[in-house]
Amino acid sequence: MAPTIAVESVQKKPQHRQAAPPAPAEEEIWLKNRNEELERELERSAEREEKMKKELQRTWERLRVAEEAEERLCTQLGELEAEAVDQARSYRARMLSLMDQLSAAQKLLQSANYSIASPPNSQ
């Protein structure tokens, strides 16, 4: 079964707007939390990227192995085709030889029948 690659969809999270601007301490806490959230997302993204790189590397390796196998199979097929042609030529030569022998044997039999006197008619 072919490997699959899952891609997580990146959904924009709704940004909460406050009616009044936050106090400096609250804003600092909010920025710190937002920064931590972005850092976690960056880490997850880096992990996904690394995972994708490894998957790509495995796919390239499988492709290389498949191409090498294809080359070997093509070479073997060529060798088998050459062997089949050689066998067909040998078979044809043997058939022609046997046909010549059969023809010579038939001629010999025919000449033997003609050279032997036919039995005389006893009538």
Structure description:
- The model has no long low-confidence stretch (mean pLDDT 85).
- This protein has one helix and no strands.
- By secondary structure, it is mostly helical.
- It is rod-shaped and about 145 Å long.
Task: Compile the SSE list and pairings.
Layout: H1 24-115
Q: Unreliable runs, pLDDT <50, ≥5 residues?
A: none
Order of helices and strands: H
Counted beta strands: 0
Class by SSE composition: mainly alpha
The end-to-end distance, rounded to whole angstroms, is 92 Å
Q: Whole-number average pLDDT?
A: 85
**Number of helical runs?**
1
Radius of gyration: 44 Å
Beta-strand level of the residues, as a percent range?
A: under 5%
Shape: rod-shaped
Percentage of residues assigned to helices: over 70%
Major sheet: size, sense and barrel closure? none
List keywords for this structure.
123 residues, mainly alpha
Quick recap:
The chain has 123 residues and is mostly helical.
